[in-house]
Known about the structure:
By secondary structure, this protein is mainly α. Helix content is 71%, strand content 0%. The chain has helices at residues 5-29, 37-58, 62-86.
Amino acid sequence: MVWSTPRLVGVCAAALALAGLGTALASEQWGGLVPCPLCLWERWPYRVAIAVGVLAIALPRKPVFWLLGIVVLASVGLGATHVGVELGLWPSPLPMCSAPK
Length: 101
């Protein structure tokens, strides 16, 4: 298997998404943080990015990278929503999650 730039992008995407999930789990286990429902929703794009990254390693084609871009946009959208809830800019879309007062 030749390591071309598309395959390298797939490796980097999967590794960075895995590092993000690992950081979240470590903050729970060793930091004592309890995730809210929005935190748990924010982890889904990371899981999908790992799968898409592995797919990009196997099939380095443009549609796979478009899918990776969509996953990144979904992650940004969820993150922005969570920040807005934490700052009190808007109510949470999930009834179980609210900003500390």
